[in-house]
Amino acid sequence: MIKNLLNFCFFVLFFQNTILCQTHFEEHNFDRDTIQERFKKLNQKTLIELYYSEEVEKRIIQQLTHKLKFYNKNKWNLELYLPLFHEKLSNEKLPVELKYLPVVESNLSPTAISKVGATGLWQLMFYTAVENGLVMNSYVDERMDPVKSTTAAVRYLKKLYDIHKDWDLAVASYNAGPRTISKATQRSGGYQNYWNIRPFLPKETANYIPSFFATIYVLEYAKEHGINIDNNSNYFFKTDSVLIKQRVSIHQISKVLNISEDKLTDLNPSYVHKIIPVVEGQENYIYIPDSLSSKFLESEQDIYELATREFELREKPLPSLFSINSKLVYKIKYGDFLGKIANRFGVTVSQIKKWNNLTTDQIRENQKIIIFPKKIPKN
Fold it and tell me: What is the pTM of this model?
């Protein structure tokens, strides 16, 4: 009797779970034939070879299951940045579907920093950023500037395509670097197709292309999957860039223009301390809603006068200005140790020891050491 009852309960639970799974599947439009047909249509209109595999399908269903809330929650960022990326790519005759790379790279966070120091929407490494025209110092990290970082990323993607002559390999190279792709090609016996060299790639890069393809599919068919974004939004093009002629803070500009400081910070994430410096030979701009352009010009002198007053009254001194990767003399503070200092400046302990001829890890308070920083330290 008990055995029969248990069997009946098991059958009921199994039946309920089956119904729930089917309902869940239908609610999210997980019809594999439909997904595959849509995917084929996408492949026909892009220069990127969108190969449909079990892994790609798996990634699509994972996104439709777990990431729809994220997309709807980040509606503003999607509508703000995707049209900007689209325009920059289109102007350079690159596949516009590359605009979805930052979704994979940074979840569209302009201030994202990876464990290895890749920064910004496009997750550019330090030397890649420098080689493609970006400026980084203790006040500014242009990898976090939406427009400038996009220009640099587009330039870099063009270089990678020139190397590989294949967009799948160029995108994989964007993630892992050209050398990694070359090594995988050699280990595969000389194949020049991503899917053939995939078994020889690092796990992250092996998963990168399927995730990218899944992101293209989900956002190209956003409405069909309940993602309420306007693909024709042009909000970023309703902003204006204005040249800053005197050191000023985001707070001071927002105060005079009567605009939310958070909104102004969102438009200008590259200013690390929320202060726009004035550096000889370098022009720094800020983005403001174009509706405030005239007000900025009318109030510009008021902004600078406010900045002068507030900076003079500031109790804590302003951070020093120095170029990233330039020589910095650092004074050891109480509680410092080499690992902590290395992490702060994006370098290694062995590099610090080499630069300062240190034979041990022992350091003392007030000791001065030389550092060539690769990361912008926060105060």
Answer: 0.84
